[in-house]
């Protein structure tokens, strides 16, 4: 083996081991970085094509970096309501201000106070808008992917459209006897009002329900809306509901003094022939009275946004001061045919490459995508114990290569002395 070949081989070892130390250094430095994936040195021997049994020409060693992007990190609890982690395959999708798309395993999302968007490392977290039940409304495609805007629904309120009434009207009440109950209604602005229902027995198995004008729940002396409509009710001989007129039973409220829109309310009084709503049975009392079991309505009082959280499954939920919780977005998960082939950029971000293939978008837990865990973060995959072991090995190899350089230098000096 020539001295120059030995020197070249030793120099390649110094270069390769120094790069290995650099990778170990990065891994140790990021041992506490959320979502960090280790990089390891992959060594490859180099041999000269001129080597033969009669002579040897050294080649040395080359090193390349292997990015362990698909390696799963340990999931740990987080006190942040917007933190999340992927258990399994996939990446969160983010975009910067210029629209460039990146992928990351770092789920430490925060709300950008200036604009209300969920961001990760200063990039916008992407997801799909949903209905209140968490169903994606526009399709799970790249075209419908949008920034998750937590301020999109700062407040909620909805008008009452249905009242479900379960009650027993006393069959032993005298004709023309009346009874009253009260139901709550909400206008389109979320203002609460009350409407009094007067139940009058008009004949055998026949009743009429009439309605007072709406008054504010906060001040019953103030009329808030005009109620029109009455309901004629007929019962079967077994006490079950026979019919209502009109059918379905409805009333209208107009002229809201709150400025709300006019509305029509459907009264769900039960199934014809059934006893699941209104019934007419004897009260078995000297003073018959109505037995009101429940009155439920679907309106919603005004509520302002009080909190945002990411739940298991990737649902972004908004909580309001009226106690309501709505799902407003679903976080998208991107998968790749070869995740380890992604291009690594700063901040724990990755970009598509020809090696990784194109991203495929999924809801969490579907199509091979991992599940999203709320209030969790994925720890770094760097193991300091293993990194120290690798570092010692690289250090010893580096020192040995340096000794080879020193030895070759001495041999060159000997050669030069012989020539002189």
TrEMBL record:
Residues in domain Flagellar basal-body/hook protein C-terminal? 377-416
Q: What is this protein called?
A: Flagellar hook protein FlgE
Q: Which residues form the Flagellar hook protein FlgE D2 domain?
A: 163-290
Task: Please cite one Gene Ontology biological process associated with this protein.
Answer: bacterial-type flagellum-dependent swarming motility
Q: Where is the Flagellar hook protein FlgE/F/G-like D1 domain?
A: 85-126
The highest taxon in the source lineage is: Bacteria
UniProt keyword list? Bacterial flagellum, Cell projection, Cilium, Flagellum
- Gene Ontology CC: bacterial-type flagellum basal body; bacterial-type flagellum hook; cytosol
Q: Where in the cell is it found?
A: Bacterial flagellum basal body
Which SUPFAM superfamilies does this UniProt record tie to the protein? Flagellar hook protein flgE
């Amino acid at each position: 083996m020539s001295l120059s070949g030995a020197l070249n081989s030793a120099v390649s070892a110094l270069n390769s081991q120094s790069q290995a130390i650099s990778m170990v250094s990065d891994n140790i430095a990021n041992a506490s970085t959320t979502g960090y994936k280790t990089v390891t040195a992959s060594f490859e021997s180099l041999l000269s094509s001129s080597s033969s049994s009669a002579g040897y020409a050294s080649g040395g060693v080359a090193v390349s970096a292997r990015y362990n992007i698909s390696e799963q990190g340990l999931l740990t609890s987080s006190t942040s309501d917007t933190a999340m982690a992927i258990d399994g395959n996939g990446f969160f999708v983010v975009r910067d201000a210029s629209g460039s798309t990146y992928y990351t395993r770092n789920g430490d999302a925060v709300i950008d106070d200036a604009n209300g968007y969920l961001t990760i490392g200063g990039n916008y977290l992407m997801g799909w808008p949903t209905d209140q039940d968490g169903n994606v409304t526009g399709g799970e495609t790249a075209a419908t992917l949008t920034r998750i805007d937590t301020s999109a629904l700062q407040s909620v309120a909805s008008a009452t459209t249905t009242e479900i009434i379960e009650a027993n009207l006393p069959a032993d009440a005298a004709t023309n006897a009346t009874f009253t109950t009260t139901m709550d209604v909400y206008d389109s602005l979320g203002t609460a009002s009350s409407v009094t229902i007067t139940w009058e027995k008009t004949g055998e198995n026949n009743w009429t329900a009439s309605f007072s004008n709406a008054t504010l729940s906060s001040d019953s002396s103030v009329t808030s809306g005009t109620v029109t409509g009455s309901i004629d009710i007929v019962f079967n001989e077994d006490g079950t509901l026979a019919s209502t007129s009109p059918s379905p039973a409805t009333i209208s409220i107009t002229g809201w003094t709150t400025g709300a829109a006019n509305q029509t309310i459907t009264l769900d009084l039960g199934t014809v022939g059934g006893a699941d709503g209104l019934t007419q049975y004897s009260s078995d009392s000297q003073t018959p009275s109505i037995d009101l079991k429940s009155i439920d309505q679907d309106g919603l009082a005004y509520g302002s946004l009080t909190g945002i959280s990411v739940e298991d499954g990737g649902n972004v939920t908004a909580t309001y001061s009226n106690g309501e919780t709505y799902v407003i977005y679903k976080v998208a998960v991107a998968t790749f045919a070869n995740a380890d082939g992604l291009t690594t950029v700063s901040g724990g971000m990755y970009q598509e490459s020809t090696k990784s293939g194109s991203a495929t978008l999924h809801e969490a837990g579907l199509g091979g995508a991992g599940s999203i865990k709320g209030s969790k973060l994925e720890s770094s995959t760097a193991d300091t114990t293993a990194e120290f072991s690798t570092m010692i090995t690289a250090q010893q190899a580096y020192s040995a290569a340096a000794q080879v350089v020193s030895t070759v230098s001495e041999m060159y000096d000997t050669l030069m002395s012989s020539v002189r």
